């Protein structure tokens, strides 16, 4: 995101008298919305993602250990 784009968005929001501005990718904005509408669902999604990442790291460690043998 360029500084010019950010500046234009800030000015536009100030002209509209908005007090909040979220300059983030779509998936982050959707997370914010989901947190407001269905927080339990968001936490379930985040937990599942964290567990999947942990499993991926464990598998990589096992593969590296097997290669070292």
**Distance between the first and last residues' Cα:** 46 Å
Shape: elongated
Number of domains: 2
> Low-confidence segments, ≥5 residues, pLDDT <50?
none
Radius of gyration: 20 Å
| Tally of DSSP helical segments | 3
Largest sheet: none
Give the strand content: under 5%
Helix content: over 70%
Order of helices and strands: HHH
Q: Total number of β-strand segments?
A: 0
Which oligomerization state do the chains in this entry correspond to? Answer: single chain
What does the secondary structure layout of this molecule look like, with pairings?
Blueprint: H1 3-15, H2 26-37, H3 39-68
Helix pairs in contact: 2-3
Can you tell me about this structure?
- There is one protein chain.
- The protein has three helices and no strands.
- The protein starts with a helix and ends with a helix.
- The protein folds into two domains: 1-37, no CATH class; 39-69.
- The longest helix has 30 residues, at 39-68.
- Helices cover 80% and strands 0% of the residues.
- The protein is mainly α.
- It is elongated.
